[in-house]
Amino acid sequence: MNTSILRGWSAFLLWSVGALACRPDPGVPDYSSHVGLRDPPATGAEFLPGPNPFERGTPRLYVGAFYEGEATDEILINDVDTHYYIFENSYQQESSSERVEGRLSDKLELNGTPFWGGGLIWDVAKDLSEWTTLYVSLRSDSGSFVDVPIILQSEAGGRVVDAQVSAAEYGYLNDGQWHNLRIPLSDLSGFDPGATRAPFILSAPGGTGGDTLLVDDLYLTQE
Fold first, then answer.
1. Which pTM does this prediction carry?
2. Residue 42 CA to chain centroid, in angstroms?
């Protein structure tokens, strides 16, 4: 079983609306204002297998956050070259017992900054060309999350570029219910899985302080 204690890191992200963009160096990580974002689960909490329970021997990649179940492969957050960043302290993160998988989900609560965002970022490109499909579950009824941009990054010509899809295109609704998304990586125009620099980022301009989004059950498969 894979579990992870997430640590939020402040970072800088230059948001470029409507276009693929090179991501600036996030700078020196500063997590002095953040502590462990997952609390220990309540004693006796039921472990949920998720909408697509893991089947032993079926390839599944855990990328270090938003998932508690079993996997055949894993890339852990090591705070050296694989990181979890919260951009510019744009949201707070805590555990929630409202989940679709495991014992906990993660609740993102916006701080009312001009943009919000955060995600998994790798300093060195990794080859994920064997992995074809991203799964993630989202839940919100807050106005800031009528839709949720999902961003992956890859390296090309010495630059890091964004590839983005809309959660609404994969069944997400802003109705306060869980929605389990299945996203083929081939749908992300310009994304090269063989040179992945970020396997999962959520980020958008605007947002109202106090609005919340629940995130759970994130992994990749080889379908």
1. 0.83
2. 24
Q: pLDDT value at position 20? A: 29
For the chain, list residues with pLDDT below 70. 1-44
Instruction: Give the pair of three-digit tokens for residue 150.
Output: 């999902």
Amino acid at 185: L
CB 52 within 8 A of CB 223: no
Name every residue whose Cβ is closer than 8 Å to that of residue 151 and which is 6 or more positions away in sequence.
119, 162, 163, 164, 198, 201, 202, 203
Domains and CATH numbers, the chain: 1-13+26-39+64-106+114-205+219-223 (2.60.120)
Position 28 scores a pLDDT of 38
CB of 193 within 8 A of CB of 129?
Answer: yes
Query: Which residues touch 214 (CB under 8 Å, ≥6 apart)?
Result: 96, 98, 99, 105, 106, 107, 108, 138, 139, 140, 178
CA angle 145, 149, 153 (to 5 degrees): 150
Report helix, strand or coil for 113: coil
User: Phi then psi for 144, rounded to 5 degrees?
Assistant: -70, -15
